[in-house]
Amino acid sequence: MQGLMMDWQLTLPNLLERARMLHGRREIVSRTPAGMHRYTYKEYVERVDRLRGALTSLGVRPGDRVATFAWNSYRHFEVYFAVPCMGAVIHTLNVRLFPEQVVFIANHAEDSVVLVDATLLPVFQKIRSQLTTVKQVIVFPDDGKPVDPAVGLDYEALLAKAEPIRTAPPIDENAAAAMCYTSGTTGNPKGVVYSHRAIVLHTLAAVGADMMGLRGFDSMLAIVPLFHANAWGLPYAAVMVGAKMIWPGHFLQPADVSSLIESEKVTFVGGVPTIISALYQHLGENPGRYDISSLQKIMVGGAACPRSLMEGFRRDFGVWITHAWGMTETSPLGTFGNERPQLLELSPEQELNTRLKQGLPAPFVEIRIVDAEGRELPHDGVAFGELQVRGPWVVKAYHNDARNAEALMDGWFRTGDVATIDPEGYLQLVDRTKDVVKSGGEWISSVDLENAIMMHPGVLEAAVIGVAHPIWQERPLACVVTRPGVTLTAGDIIASIKSRFATWWLPNDVTFIDAVPKTSVGKFDKKVLREQFKDHRWPE
């Protein structure tokens, strides 16, 4: 048959070469312990070439796993492309995990090289002797401070003497490019491997107008860590379109983020709701101090965005927060809540309710909900069941893991989320299967209760957990953090939400805590609360 298209491998070197040819003048900015670091994409690509040469001289070969233990910085960003563009596999280690989990992950992945931030050396050195496959340690130095040769190789010294390698070896698009492990909330963390093809397709979809809508004009501040689900694909998206990149390092306090938005004229921010909520609170406490008028879009994921936060940013700064849903296993974008024509037909209240959902499936991604027997449920916005997903960048199997069989059902990945899908196709997460409150044979959404409680002006954070009950199996307990200087009672909390829910949904009790514990990626860590309050005495 005549007219077939040219065979073309979808690999990351194509994105790197595009940046080399088209985006050389665009800027990459990092906040480091020594101050702000600035250079261009042209300089970035040249350093990527040098890093490829340096790693090759150290014996890194295609297929080898090269790990990072680092914050978001220009150096970490260099590794993101250098490693897969030489046929090796970049493996980002989560610096916030417990040491024993990091050891398990590095050994399970069989990492051969680890690149470490100097600021994280005190943590890394405690586990170095337990890493059985690591042959070389390379240190991102604090600027101006030499690296102790006994600890590792100096990253800058390696690049200075390296012979640049500009061309990539032949790479099959189905070969591994990156890997990331889940945070291990139950059992050992699970390894997810991303192919070049999956990343390229994900990137093409992510930058589309109905998704991130990212352009070369944008200035992107990536608060989401590079070790969290490939930073939601933001590094690849930026290189694809030539967006200005701003890396905050470990400077993630609200004042740091606010000043970066102002100084770098940030248009796009990506981060979890806890970080964005702290930013909003800081801006509110310092009116007029920062000029954030450049900001056009905030993308959140990892947890539900509180209604008060979405309303507040829209009201006070004219910026819609855009919901996205995904997982490590979905590369991560599964759904995205960008504008659709049907939103214009709704009342302001209905529009907000729709935007608070997790959005519509990304191109090429399919979603469904099923009941306990695996039967598919209708998309009527009422029925809710386990969310399942499949698509070209959704995991097909975990790396060397016996739990693969339980993770898949007839080619669909079982997410562990409980959700509804409305007739328009919008996904709304109801809960995690392990977090939903099972009361008297019925399910109660902890997420819905949390969002309602956090609408109270005196509430900073709220987490709802199921606690054993002698009659009803479980009942909801609300764990509430009040804003500074505010005093509330359990009655105040219940009164503020009772009109929104059936009586049997309302928490049986409210406890006030100093802070909701967080996971390594900033989500509410409810397993800590469940352990803390497992013997909670219900009021008579």
**Largest sheet entry:** 9 strands, mixed
- Structural domain count: 3
Number of strands: 26
CATH domain class name of the largest domain: Alpha Beta
- Assess the beta-strand content as a share of residues: 15-25%
User: How much is the average pLDDT?
Assistant: 93
Gyration radius from CA atoms, angstroms: 23 Å
Count every helix, treating DSSP H or I runs of 4 or more residues as helices: 16
Shape: globular
- Order of strands, main sheet, comes to 2-1-11-10-12-13-14-15-16
Class from helix and strand fractions: alpha/beta
CATH topology of the largest domain: Rossmann fold
Helix-residue proportion: 25-40%
Distance between the termini: 79 Å
The CATH homologous superfamily of the largest domain is named ANL, N-terminal domain
| Low confidence ranges | none
CATH architecture of the largest domain: 3-Layer(aba) Sandwich
Describe the structure.
It is globular and about 75 Å long. The protein has three domains: 12-251, ANL, N-terminal domain (Rossmann fold), CATH 3.40.50.12780; 364-432, Luciferase, domain 3; 437-532, ANL, C-terminal domain (GMP Synthetase, Chain A, domain 3, 2-Layer Sandwich). A nine-stranded mixed β-sheet has the order 2-1-11-10-12-13-14-15-16. A seven-stranded mixed β-sheet has the order 7-6-5-3-4-8-9, sandwiched between helices. The protein is α/β, with parallel strands linked by helices and 540 residues long. The model has no long low-confidence stretch (mean pLDDT 93).
